[in-house]
Amino acid sequence: MLRVLLPTDFSKASLNAIVYAFKLFEGKQVWFDVLHIIPEHEGEGTENITEQIHEAKLHFEAMKHKVVTCHKLSLPSQLHLHIISDVSVSAKIGKYALAQQMDMVVMGSTGIGNHEDHLFGSVTLSVIAELEKPVLSIPKQSQYKKLQKIVYATDLNDIDFEAKELMAFAKLFNVAVHFVHVFPEVISATRFNPAHISHDLTRKYNYPHITFDAIMNNDVENGLLQFIETHQPDIVAMFTRKRNTYEQLVDKSITRKVALGSAAPIFAFRKNEELIDA
């Protein structure tokens, strides 16, 4: 049974992510853990924590009611609430996912009120940067639709590793995977043979729904965003390496523009470089 972790702060964004997950995995055997973490503050008494736990349980019941009445969904048979407190929300999400052997994490990319990017949004980015588990990040404006196409932007480094990880998800939903590589004009386009690469990936992973494109653009970010705008994928997949590399990616606005501009969910993996280099 697939084990999916749903971190929540009970905001509209996190509710949207939970509804997305329920629709995405509808009809499949999935164990859902809904995780609410109460941030610990120095000098805070146990009485306040107890009150927050009680409030979280009420929020959970209200959330289930909205799922059924507003979104017209049946609740999954395996849906479990876990409430814990910790000084670091993102670190605790990662530790919980590993300790409970969750297969993936689904969470919203923004949070509460006027501090959206600072709260749950930054938590989501931190989880993606640190956790060596797949994280599906759902922008608050993203609405679920049946998966038909995943776009994965690759630099062609470790493409075999990347394809192996991505195919497990793609095959679960029988969805097409479109690999795209954006390269600068100083590199000859003759270096790439899209048909040949597509054929090799299809044969290697015994999966017929794989295509590959190589696009010339000196601005990798712009080239990728134009491709996404043209092809309108249901999910954009990406792999991350080190934390500073991912933060640099965010600084360049690639992830943020994709999530907020196209409303496409981001399916992110963090590469274990030690395993890749071994």
Give an overview in words.
The protein is of the alpha/beta class and 278 residues long. It has 10 helices and 10 strands. It starts with a strand and ends with a helix. The protein has helices at 12-24, 46-69, 89-99, 117-130, 159-173, 194-204, 220-231, 243-251, 254-261, 273-277, and strands at residues 2-7, 30-39, 79-86, 104-108, 135-138, 149-153, 176-183, 210-216, 235-240, 266-270. The protein has 2 domains: 2-138, HUPs (Rossmann fold); 149-277, 3-Layer(aba) Sandwich (Rossmann fold), CATH 3.40.50.620. Helices cover 44% and strands 23% of the residues. The protein has a 10-stranded mixed sheet, with helices on both faces.
Structural features:
Rossmann fold; elongated; 10 helices; alpha/beta; ten-stranded mixed β-sheet; 278 residues; disordered C terminus
Classification by helices and strands: alpha/beta
Helix content: 40-55%
CATH level-1 class of the largest domain: Alpha Beta
Continuous helix count: 10
Q: Tell me the span between the first and last alpha carbons.
A: 30 Å
Instruction: Spell out the helices and strands N to C.
Output: EHEHEHEHEEHEHEHEHHEH
State the strand order across the main sheet: 3-2-1-4-5-10-9-6-7-8
How would you sum up the major sheet? 10 strands, mixed
CATH topology of the largest domain: Rossmann fold
Number of strands: 10
Number of domains: 2
Overall pLDDT score: 81
Strand proportion, as a percent range, falls in: 15-25%
CATH superfamily descriptor of the largest domain: HUPs
Low-pLDDT regions: 111-120, 243-253, 273-278
